[in-house]
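#structure-requests
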Amino acid sequence: MVSIALPKGRLGEKVYSLLKSAGYGCREIEEKERKLLFLSDNGKVSYFWVKPADVAVYVELGAADMGICGKDIIDETEPDLYELLDTGLGKCRMCVCAKENFEDNEGRLKVATKFPCIAKKYYESMGRDIDIIKLNGSIELAPLLGLSDVIVDIVETGRTLRENNLAVFAQIEDISARLVSNKSSYNFKYAETEKIRLDLEDALNDKTR
């Protein structure tokens, strides 16, 4: 049996729908049971829900054989695991944003973000000196209140930016949910994990036809 960590919330609902279409449906999940562990109807997969940011931790440390988590989490925390498949779910962008009238003078930047590692790597690749301000929420406020010059954050529709006179100045990378695997599990349960990957890939291909 293969254990899979699912991200809670809206993304998790999309992820479960994909797994169900790939043949790994679970009536216990759909019946909103209060259980912590769920068994798929075909008996081949066990599921459990965790916060999206924790999926990679459970997989890396072997509490789950596989999981689905955002590329932003993978790049920010750099967990020691295998990235097997881009599901295309939860698509968004990691961007540099600032006030619409922002002018970059190429000097030292103050960057507010929930993703300090991603921001640091991005600006290091450009040879820029920055001061990182780590925030946990309401990132858009930072440039409006003069706390930072720019922000590095996830942009989905861009509505919040527009409503606050902010704009995207650069795109760092595309973000989406990825199927990941614990390295030991991938070696010792290769046939099982690879079948799940292929079944999900087929389900994704069916959706695009």
